[in-house]
Structures are given as C-alpha cells and as structure tokens.
Amino acid sequence: MKQFGIFIQKEFYHILRDRRTLLILLGMPVVLVLLFGFAITNEIDNARIAILDQSKGEMSQEITQRLVASGYFLIDENLQEIAQIEQHFREGKTKMAVVFPSGIEEDKRRNLPTQIQLIADATDPNTATTLINYASAIIGQYAQEQARGQALPMQIRTEVKMLYNPRLKSVFLFVPGVMTVILMLVSAMMTSIAITREKELGTMEVLLVSPLKPAMIIVGKVIPYILLALANTVVILLLGTFVFGMPVRGSLVLLALECLLFVITALALGILISTRTDSQQVAMLISLMVLMLPTILLSGFIFPIESMPKVLQVISNIIPAKWFIIILKNVMLKGTGIEFVWKESLILAGMTLFFIGASVRNFKTRLE
Amino acid sequence: MPTSQAIQVDNLSKRYGKDVQALAQVSFEVGRGELFGLIGPDGAGKTTLIRILATLLLADEGQATVNGWEVRKNYRKIRSHIGYMPGRFSLYQDLSVEENLRFFATIFGSTIEENYELIRDIYVQLEPFRERKAGKLSGGMKQKLALCCALIHKPVVLLLDEPTTGVDPVSRQEFWEMLQRLKEKDIAILVSTPYMDEASLCDRVALIQKGRLLSIDQPGKIVSAFDKPLLAIRTNDMYRLIHDLRAFEPGHSAFPFGEYVHLSLRQPIWPEAIHAYLAGKEHTGIEIKPAQATIEDAFMELMTREVM
Amino acid sequence: MLPAITTDKLTKRFGDFTAVDQITFEVNKGEIFGFLGANGAGKTTAMRMLNGLSRPSGGQAAVAGFDVYRETEKIKKHIGYMSQKFSLYEDLTVRENIQFYGGIYGLPGKEIRRQVQELIGGLGMQAYANTLVKSIPLGWKQKLSFSIAIMHRPEIVFLDEPTGGVDPITRRQFWEMIYKAASEGMTVFVTTHYMDEAEYCDRVSIMVDGRIAALDRPRALKEQFGAGSMNDVFLQLTRPKP
User: Fold this and answer.
1) Does A367 fall in a domain?
2) B165-169 mean pLDDT
3) Is there a contact between B170 and C200 if contact means CB atoms under 8 Å apart?
4) Residue C242 — very low, low, confident or very high, per pLDDT cuts 50/70/90?
5) How many other CB atoms are there within 10 angstroms of residue A332's CB atom?
6) What domain count does chain B have?
7) For residues B26 and B38, is the Cβ–Cβ distance under 8 A?
C-alpha cells in the first residue's frame, strides 16, 4: 500500500511540475467552451439582405419595411430575377434573400395560405440559422397582426431553404461535445503519453524489475488523470450553466457517474495504446488519429450522424464518444433518468471491459 | 539443484528475427562478492544478456539463474532481490535527488534510512544537491544517483549495463572505486562496458563479441595468455609504418596503439632486423621497444582467431 | 606555411558564464590535433566557434586562413565535420547517403558517381552499398561517416567525439583512415573525452573549466606529469591532489 501511495505521489509530481502541460490541460476546456459558446451566440446586427419582389404589391412592401425597421437587416439591393441570388451569395454581398412570389396578393385576397421564400447562404450555418429565425419571426408577427378581425386567420408560411448545408444542428450540442473531447483528450492521450514516457526514459525497465505488480503501475499512473478529467468536467459544466445558460435537467449524481464511466473507457483506451507503442510521439499520433479525430468528427458532435453516409453511420457505433454524447444530451437537456440511458451506458461499460481485457493481454511483464 | 553462485548462465542463446544472433551459447558464472566485467563493443550482446538476467527478456535456449532462482519461472523473486541499472538513464528528471531515492526505496519495500549504510559513501557526494532535480545534475552525478537507487533495497546481485559510457574520466574512476567498495559487502556485481581499459578493474572478465564469449578469466590471465612476442614501434610516418609492418614477413599482426604500433611476431627476432627493414623503407625516427600486451591486444588476437 | 588553425585569446561568454576563456593555440597543417576535456569543459563551444557556427565574444581566430567573425561562409567551404551522431540518414542507403552529401557540397554528377565507387570500394562496403544505413553495424557507420566528411577534400576535418563503443580492430581501422587523411596533408581536429583516443594524436590540448590546462605531444605530457597514460595526465589535471 505504501508502494502504491508513493507511486501516485510521484505521478502528481510529474503533473504538477510540468507547468506548461498542466496549464494547457486546465486552460483548454475553458478556452474551448468559451470559443464554441461565443461562436454560436453571435448576435446579428444590420445584416445585408436582398429582396426579390415578384408580386410588386402592398404586402411585400410592408414586410420589407418591417424587416428593415427591426434593425437586424439592411436592404442591399432589390433584385430582378431569381438567378441573381446565387450570384450575390457568391460575391459575398448578402447573406440572405427574401423572395415574394407573384401570387401572394392573390392568395391574400382569396384568403389562402401563402408562401414567402427565405434563402440563406449556409456556408456559415450559425449565421444562416439566426438570420432565418429572425426573419421568420418578423414575418410571423406580421401575419398575426393582419389576421386580427378577420374570419379566417391569414396564413403565411415561410419556406426556408438552406443552401450548401441542408441540416443544421442545435446550439446546445457544444457543451456535451466539448466535454466529450476534453475527457477523451485528458484521459486517453495524457495517460498513453505518460506511460510511454516512462518507456522512453528507461524508468519502465526499472519499474518492471521491481516488486511492483504491473496492474499497480497502471492503476497508479491512471488515478491522477481520473481526478484531472473530473475536475475538467466540473469546470465545463459550470461554464456551460453560468455563462451560456445550459440547463442540467437530470440528476447530477447520474451525470457524475456517467462521466466517470466515460473517463474510465477513455483511460482504458489510453492504456491499450500505450501497451502497443514505445514512444511518446507514436502514442500521441495514434491518440490523435484513432481517438480524437473520430471523437470530433464521427460522434455527432459537429456533423449529425443521421446525415452521414451509411458506412460512417455504422462505424460511428464503435466510437465511445457517440454513446456518451447521447447520454449527456439525454441527462442534461431532456432530464431523463437511467431508464432512458441504460442501454448506452451498458454499451460504454462493455467497451471499457473489452479495452481493459485487451490491455491486460497486451501488457508485457518483460520487454518483448 | 541449489547453487552457491550468484549468477549462473548455461548455454544461453537469443535471436532477434532471423538474421541477428544476439547471444550464442553463452555460459559463465559469477560468485558472491565478485566483480565481474562483461567487456565488448556495442552490439556484442551485452545488453541482451543483462536484460535476460534482469528477467526483462526471455532466452530462446539455455538456462540462467540469479541467486539460485531460475530467470523464467522465478522472475518475481529475482525482481525483488536485484539491483538493475539500465544503459539508458533511468531516473525521473523532474524529481529531486532525494525524491528519486525515496521513490525507488519505497517501491522496493524499503526505506532510505534502513539501508543508508550501504549507500552512504556515494550519497554523501550527492547530499549537497539533495533538493536539485535529477535532470539538472552532471553526467557523473546522475550515474552516482542511479547507482544509489539501484542499491537502496540492498540487492544481493547488482546488474549494471554500461554505467560508465559517456561519463568523463574522473567520474568513471570514482564510479569504479565505488564498485570496489561494494563488492566487499558481499554483493555480486555484473557490469558491462565497451571500454577495454576497465577490464583490469574487475575480478574476472568475459570478453564478448558478436554474441559469443571469446574468453572468461582474470584480466591478468587473459593478458598473459597472449603468448606472441610483442614490440612497440614508432617512426615519423605512422601511416606508412602500419602498412610496412603488415608487409613484414615475420610479423603476425600490426595495429596502431596510441603513439606506437604494436607488432606481434610469429617467432622472436632481433629488433635490429626490424630496424634494418624499416630503415630500408626510408623511415626516420625509428624507435623499437618490447611491449607489454594489453587487454586490447588479447581481444584483437581472440577476434582474429575467431574469424579463422 | 600558414597554420591550419590559429586562435588568440578566443573567448565565449553566455551571460555571466565564461564557457571558453581566452584560449590560444595553433594547429599545423597535416597534424592530428586532440582537443580533450570533460563534459562541460568548453570543448564543444570552442569547436563551434571554429566551425563558424557560433560567434566568439572576444579574441581572434582563423581557420584555413579565414576569419571566424567575418568569413564563416568561406570557413564552411573548407572544412569537413563529423558529429558524434554521424549525421547519416538512417533511412537512406549507403549509396544514397554518399550521393546526397556529394550533392550538398556541389560536386558534379560525374565526380559523385566516381566517389560512390571509390568510397564504397575503399571501405570494402560493396555488400552494404544498397543497405539502409540503420541496419549496418556501428563501425561501418563510423567509417562511412568519416569518408563522407572528407569527400569534398576539405583542408581541415573536425571530428566531434568520433569513437567509442566499437571493437578494438574497427577502432584501429578508423584511426588508420585518420592517419591516411593526415598523411595526405589534411588537418584533423578531434574532440573527445575518451583519453585512450588522445594517445593517437600528434598533439593534444586538455581543457579544464574553459581554459587550456595543458598542450603538447602525448609522450611529453606523460613525461611532464610522470604519468603512465593520458588518462592519468587528465586525472591529475582535473582532480589536483589536495
């Protein structure tokens, strides 16, 4: 027990004395959360839009005026034909175009539902969503006011078209996403590097030639990183809640347990990597290529899984991060209990057991 | 079979892949309290041998025991009772001198205080730098600290893989003096080195080359086994001298040795004959004197014999 | 005849620390000059100044007749350099390494082809010509590295901690290559902390704490200090008897 104690103490010395890495480990979650957070809550102010008025009627003028009066939009140009829209987008002059089809006055007179088209340049999806949301709200309000005192309420449906990027995802995704990436990074990458560093230094040879059991060496290396990862979790949750109003609707205990489960999954992966590699550089590369990239790209954090090609959808099932993000969204946003996430939790637990089993098989009590 | 030897190696062989024969039927033994040198160039198989004894590698064939324990079956036992210093630097650079020592003492289930007696002579030199990080020590100091760390649990056998490589002459000498004192405490020491001149500091040595032991004996006996007449010769043109001596009919071998060339002869001849031969080749400043064979002469002789 | 290297009170300071303290010496053409000292005595710093890699803080020095302050580019053209890490590309073959370095020193294609033949033949390395450098034995690497360092026929070749760890025969083959180069008029400047090597040099200097503590022929030094070997001379110099 005393041996184990001094081992963990030594591990903490390594972490605390490497000031630069420690700063990155503790600072990165803060920076990432703030970065993602502010990138998404970008306020719209005087955005330039184009109008294509094919109806040339009263309604189109009134709506245009309201859009301008809101302060969110500035009319850049009145267009003559539909083909000009893309042209303008390409030149980067405007971010959104409002198309009033020729039949809207007729629809209004006959009290039929009508349509106004909002076309947005969704190369920047966040801005596009915000613009479309604002414009839809203004048009909706106009329709409601017109409807007062009429037998049948006037209906204007805004038809939204997202060019270049058909589906946009919810803004609340980033907190669970960043959390997943950070936990993966701290747990898997840092442990695999910490273990391979001992191999590189030659101290692993001495540790092996000591009465320490291999399991003790590994658990001893891992414990400080569990604590570090959990500290990061708390920081991210606090930032999400207090800076961005991210709700945590479910049970905190459940959330903490799920985080612990995922941290252990990631640690097991890190250990597995370190049993297969001998240098820090290789461990880092493998961690980045095999863990970080799929975690960012295939977990549904940035790109929705439903819109991926079938093959990638299947592959995404073996990415632990995918399941963890589902759990996080359920617990944090929907406030569901274990009854709705037990399946995902079980999958993660199964993966963890598999990785631990593989690491034990691969860990060598000798050098070859 | 119980054995009184600290290390017993019997017909050990080890290959890496198909082409590299790291060890070929190596056998020797090291007694208690003996300082045994494993001497040979890089790639001769020294590290492989030491790692097999440290239970870090498995041999393909043959047997080995450390303190009577078999290296394959009883590796746990061996690991708690040996001190091992790998060739690479094996200290935590970001831990202080004292922290390193305390760490290694504790993981071997001991304390600094318990065995301080054993390392005191070495540690007093390190004590002024107790708080200093190991990474900031000089090469010689690091080596001393690594030795302390390997000794702190009072091992019965000490395995040292090239402890003096890359260390300056002063630290090298001090290191060897420490080993001399340690063996008086009945610790068996197996030390490997590529420096031939360190052979004379060992009780017995094994010369190793390409995975084979060329000779095992006391250093003095290995040298006296070199039975050919040996002369040290110099002239003002060393390069030509080497080639002329190699072409000299009664000569057996000619190798540069510092400022001289060592010429070994098939049979004794008068130095005057050599002088005349060299003068005939227009050498000036000719100096010829009998030479005492060194461990390097012996090693080269054994190497050339091996080839034939 | 001008000396190959002259220094006059050459000094290098890093902040408060004086790494090289007013060293003055000459190295003659065709001489094998041993530059000895413990780790940290200032050998490497001094050699970097002579190579034109580091600007001196004071004093004068000329290498192959060129000034170390103003003519570093010319110096680099007239010297060869072999580092202790051999500076060979491990993942290129022996032949490719020779071709690469021939190209770097601007040798014409025909000359490179001739050198490849001559070098590989001279070293007896035909069997290894198309082998990756990482899988040839240490001794061969060392000899190849030296041959490449002198391929462009420099006036002076600097060897930084060249030997160590090779078997005694290979080590002597290496020294024979050095003798051969010197007998053809090349100046050889060897740094080492391995005192055994010093015995092979024409003259040696021993650096202690940034200064040159001794400079002479090995036999003269051994006589002067009443020592049996250069190792003893060195020990006496660095660890004075109390």
Assistant:
1) no
2) 82
3) no
4) very low
5) 23
6) 2
7) no
The residue with tokens 């009883």 is B74
Please give the mean pLDDT across all residues of chain C. 90
- Per-residue pLDDT at A162: 47
Q: Is C214 on the interface with B (CB under 8 A)?
A: no
Query: What's the confidence (pLDDT) of residue C215?
Result: 95
Report yes or no: C188 and C159 within 8 Å, Cβ to Cβ. Answer: yes
Phi and psi at residue B50, in whole multiples of 5°? -65, -40
The answer on B124 and B39 residing in a single domain is yes
Strand partners, C8: C60
Question: What is the distance between the alpha carbons of residues B208 and B303, in angstroms, rounded to a whole number?
Answer: 10
Q: Are residues A51 and A35 in the same domain?
A: no
Q: Are C90 and C133 in contact (CB under 8 A)?
A: yes
- B285: domain CATH number is 3.30.70.100
DSSP A188: I
Strand partners, B85: B160
Indicate the residue among A163, A195, A210 that finishes a domain.
A163
Residue B53: which of B172, B133, B159 has the closest Cα?
Answer: B159
* Confidence (pLDDT) at A92: 77
- Select the residue of C39, C40, C196 nearest B197 (Cβ to Cβ): C196
Question: Nearest residue of B to residue A366 by CA position?
Answer: B56
pLDDT confidence of residue C35: 94
In the predicted model, what is the mean pLDDT of residues B17-46?
92
Q: Is the pLDDT of residue A165 over 50?
A: no
CB contact under 8 A, C235 and B303: no
Which of A276, A297, A247, A211 has the alpha carbon at shortest distance from A1?
A211
Question: C167 at the B interface (CB within 8 A)?
Answer: yes
The pLDDT tens digits of the residues spanning C44-86 come to 899 999 998 899 999 999 999 999 999 988 998 899 998 877 7
Closest chain B residue to C174, measured at CA: B256
Comparing C-alpha atoms, which of B227, B269, B228 is closest to residue B248?
B269
State in Å, rounded, how far the first CA of chain C is from the last one: 44
Residue B40: closest CA among chain C residues belongs to which residue?
Answer: C167
What is the ipTM, given to two decimal places?
A: 0.86
Residues of A near B (CB-CB distance < 8 A)?
Answer: 2-3, 6-7, 10, 13-14, 17-18, 201-203, 205-212, 365-368
Q: How many angstroms separate the CA atoms of A189 and A236, rounded?
A: 19
pLDDT tens string C167-193: 889 889 999 999 999 999 999 999 987
CATH number of C30-41+81-238: 3.40.50.300
> How confident is the model over B259-290, as pLDDT tens digits?
899 999 998 888 899 999 999 999 999 999 99
| Statement: residue A81 has pLDDT above 80 | yes
Which among B55, B56, B60, B69 is the top mutation candidate for probing chain A, defined by the most A β-carbons within 10 Å of its own β-carbon? B56
Token pair in block for residue A312: 């990638």
Helix, strand, or coil here: C57? coil
> Is B88 in Cβ contact with A206 (below 8 Å)?
no
Q: What value does the mean pLDDT of chain A take?
A: 82
For chain A, say whether B99 makes contact (Cβ under 8 Å): yes
Q: Is the dihedral of CA C28, C34, C36, C40 positive or negative?
A: positive
End-to-end Cα, chain B, rounded Å: 38
Q: At what angle do helices B97-107 and A2-17 cross, to 10 degrees?
A: 150
Strands B20-30 vs B7-16: parallel, antiparallel or unpaired? antiparallel
Q: What is the DSSP letter of A212?
A: -
The answer to whether position A264 is within a domain reads yes
| Nearest to B26, CA basis, from B42, B7, B10, B5 | B10
Residue of chain B whose alpha carbon sits nearest to that of A8? B103
Q: Which amino acid is at C7?
A: T
Please name which of C201, C230, C172 lies closest in space to residue B296, comparing C-alpha atoms: C172
Q: What is the pLDDT of residue A44?
A: 61
Q: Is C195 on the interface with B (CB under 8 A)?
A: yes
B88 touches chain A (CB under 8 A): yes
- Measured CA to CA, the distance from residue B91 to residue A207 in angstroms comes to 11
